[in-house]
Design goal:
Blueprint lengths: L2 H9 L13 H13 L4 H8 L3 H16 L19 H4 L8 E4 L5 E4 L2 H11 L1
Antiparallel strand pairs: 1-2
Helix pairs in contact: 1-2, 2-4
Length: about 130
């Protein structure tokens, strides 16, 4: 979502005193997602939404708290089933193949020369 649309949504929750009140979880999630995807300076993020740091600090704090509690974010995790052993030495095969492989749910196989490569891949994709 672009910040212009988010700005319009947030402006509907603006009180006469200039405070953001009664934001629902969907809006909080959108603000947090936009904040996490923002690559620039934080001041520019606040300006793009048309609010000050003081106005959005509480909103971001509440959104982060909800994320820690697991209210939203569970949709990002996708469970993968690993069928059988990944490493050839565990499968009982004594063939020339060495290393590790990862079979995705769509049937694609990602092969690594060693377990270290697999662990690096999993750390970077987390």
């Amino acid at each position: 979502m672009d910040n212009v649309t988010l700005k319009k949504k947030l402006s509907t929750y603006l009180s006469p005193k200039g405070q953001l009140r009664n934001l629902n979880e969907d809006i909080l999630f959108e603000v947090l997602t936009a904040w996490e995807n923002w690559s620039g300076v934080s001041v520019e993020f606040y300006r793009s939404l048309g609010f000050s740091h003081k106005q959005l600090a509480g909103v971001l704090g509440k959104a982060k708290k909800l994320k820690r509690e697991g209210r939203f974010g569970s949709s990002e995790f996708k469970q993968m089933k690993v069928e059988g052993p990944i490493l050839p030495e565990l499968s009982g095969d004594s063939g020339p193949c060495h290393g590790a492989g990862l079979v995705c749910s769509d049937g694609k196989v990602i092969r690594f020369r060693g377990v270290d490569g697999l662990l690096d891949f999993l750390k970077k994709s987390a």
